[in-house]
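Hi R.,

Here's the chain you asked about this morning:
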Amino acid sequence: MNSHKDIDAADRSVVVSDPSVFDKDPNLHQSFYGLAYTPEGSQLPDCGNKLEDVIKDIQVMSQLTTRIRLYGGDCNQTALVLEAINRTKVNMTVWLGNYDVPNDNHAAYTRQRDLLKETLETYGTNHTGGMTVGNEFMLNYVTQQGLTDVDSPEANEGAQLLIQDINDTIDMLKGMNLANLPVGNSDAGSFMNKEVLSDVSYGMCNVHPWFANVSVEDSANWTTTFFLEQDQALADSLSNHPTMYIAETGWPTKSTDAGNADNGISDASEANLQIFLDTFICQANDAGIKYFFFEFKDEPWKDAQFGGVEGWWGLFDSNGTMKNITIPNCQSP
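And the predicted structure, written out as tokens:
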């Protein structure tokens, strides 16, 4: 597994140049509020991520947004991202992630917590917007238990497992004199649990019109309406009033099997990604909606593991080539 010493050693293998000096692509615009990002090779047990690759990604993403969200802490991905930001000297804020897993006796959480703590001790919080504990934890817990109501007493048993880890993170940050760093949670937009949301500073909600079987023409309005009427309204009803973000929204560009080539109404295609970009991005910016577009690049490992559309949501392919799309030209907030 990578360590901070590995980053130092890798300095000698990275091309000796100034990563803060790089060519800007006139086709890119800083239009996105934020982007969802996972460095390639950040999954156990392989951990093949490389600093030079992350630097290239940060250089490109900095031309699209000033904010990214990560999903987990394994394979030292957080340190690589923060190191890349330091080297490129770009304006970028990162929401860190701890990919919590139900029913593993907090093993995944603890492993990532310790890596994230080491990273914060090394890099501080100058480029950090928050720490997200859990991604679709409640969706997975409720599904595994065969439940339907995310706020039922049975579902709240899972919520308490997650809250235990959230509170442990809050205590860790207090012990590091970083109590001002917000701690949040991310889940599917229809699986935001009240007890969890009442315990955090922010909530991130995955709101995908594709999986709701919405036509691409209606997807932008549906996404905004769903988020405001379900997730934002829930947050407004709670005494802590957590800040709410759309954690993921986007449109897939292809499927590896014919059965998932469309969502029953609209195709997975680059043309339809363009429609969603044209109807959502600038309008969401104008409306003041905080969102992380899903996602920066395609992820082949998801295709290999899950098939269908899972690996094909990127604005760019996995090699870093932009798809046949035009980036909207409006300034993000």
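The first helix runs from residue 4 to 10.

Let me know if you need anything else.
M.
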